[in-house]
């Protein structure tokens, strides 16, 4: 069992570039992937999504990829050699023609417009692909560990609530047998004290027995206990089974509006609601 909430990060150095990946997941009814990818890695986006879909089935997942050149410059200063040659040739001609003295200082070059320009170093994404996916795999692995860790805590709490539901179901089963016995007395099938006969008469006025509903309730609770032990995503399964448990409790409560039964039904609904709240966090 895994929670839908978690966090993981990973990094790798590839050809002088540091690649870092951060991934965060929170609750969501379906799988919702939100990627923030540098433009250099846009061609890998669909491949990244495929990997994430294979590892995560439910939740909103935010992925952030940062690319930081570490060992080399991402921009390069270049000198226009051809233009410089034209400047120097022109200056020499001017000195000769007008008989000008003095040497041409290197500092003069910095004042010449358009002689220098900055060029972005061309990135070869294919050279960094392996490093990107190493960082991604590391981040996703840590995310999974985080989700599994919280999932174990949720499972323990849900198991506790299911144990309470089992006790409630057993108590309802006893009530069902008691109601059946008193209904038989009310129908005149046995002798009893005046007090017992009065109680039997009160029960006999109820709509019917709840044995069938209690049997189904036992089955649903047992199935629920088995589902939370499964390793694959179980959030939707649990939600469906809780609906079945809720339905049987509602039927029992409407059939036998008897105070001891109603109290058990209300307690059972409270446990169902607590499990349902936890299910919102389960993948």
Amino- and carboxy-terminal Cα gap? 7 Å
Strand content: 15-25%
Order of the strands making up the biggest sheet: 1-2-4-3
CATH class designation of the largest domain: Mainly Alpha
What is the molecular shape?
Answer: rod-shaped
Summarize it.
This protein has about 280 residues and is an alpha+beta fold. Helix content is about 55%, strand content about 15%.
Report on this structure.
There is one protein chain. The protein has seven helices and six strands. It folds into three domains: 88 residues, 2-Layer Sandwich (Ribosomal Protein S5, domain 2); 46 residues, no CATH class; 132 residues, Four Helix Bundle (Hemerythrin (Met), subunit A). Strand 1 and strand 2 form a beta hairpin. The longest helix has 62 residues. It starts with 5 loop residues before the first strand and ends with a helix. The protein has 283 residues and is an alpha+beta fold. 57% of the residues lie in helices and 16% in strands.
Which features does this protein show?
283 residues; alpha+beta; Ribosomal Protein S5, domain 2; Four Helix Bundle (Hemerythrin (Met), subunit A); four-stranded mixed beta sheet; 57% helix; 16% strand
SSE layout:
Blueprint: E1 6-14, E2 17-26, E3 31-36, H1 45-55, E4 59-69, E5 75-79, H2 81-98, E6 116-120, H3 125-186, H4 194-204, H5 211-227, H6 235-255, H7 259-279
Parallel strand pairs: 3-4
Antiparallel strand pairs: 1-2, 2-4, 5-6
Helix pairs in contact: 3-4, 3-5, 3-7, 5-6, 6-7
């Amino acid at each position: 069992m895994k929670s839908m909430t978690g966090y993981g990060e990973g990094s790798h150095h590839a050809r002088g570039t540091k690649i870092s990946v951060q991934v965060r997941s929170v609750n969501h009814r379906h799988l919702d992937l939100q990627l923030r990818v540098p433009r250099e890695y846009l061609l890998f986006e669909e491949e990244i999504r495929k990997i994430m879909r294979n590892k995560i089935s439910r939740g909103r997942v935010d992925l952030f990829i940062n690319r930081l050149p570490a060992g080399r410059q991402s921009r390069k200063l270049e000198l226009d050699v051809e233009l410089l040659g034209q400047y120097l040739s022109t200056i020499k001609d001017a000195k000769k023609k007008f008989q000008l003295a003095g040497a041409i200082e290197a500092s003069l070059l910095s004042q010449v417009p358009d002689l220098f320009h900055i060029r972005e170093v061309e990135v070869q994404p294919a050279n960094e692909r392996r490093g990107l996916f190493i960082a991604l795999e590391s981040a996703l692995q840590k995310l999974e560990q985080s989700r599994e860790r919280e999932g174990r805590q949720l499972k323990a709490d849900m198991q506790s609530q299911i144990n309470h539901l089992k006790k409630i179901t057993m108590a309802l089963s006893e009530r069902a047998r008691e109601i059946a016995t008193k209904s038989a007395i009310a129908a005149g099938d046995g002798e009893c004290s005046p007090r017992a006969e009065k109680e039997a008469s009160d029960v006999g006025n109820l709509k019917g027995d709840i044995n069938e509903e209690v049997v189904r309730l036992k089955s649903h609770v047992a199935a629920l206990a088995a589902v939370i032990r499964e390793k694959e995503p179980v959030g939707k399964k649990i939600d469906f089974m809780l609906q079945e448990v809720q339905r049987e409790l509602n039927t029992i409560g409407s059939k036998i509006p008897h105070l001891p039964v109603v109290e058990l039904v209300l307690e059972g609904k409270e446990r169902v609601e607590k499990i349902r709240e936890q299910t919102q966090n389960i993948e």
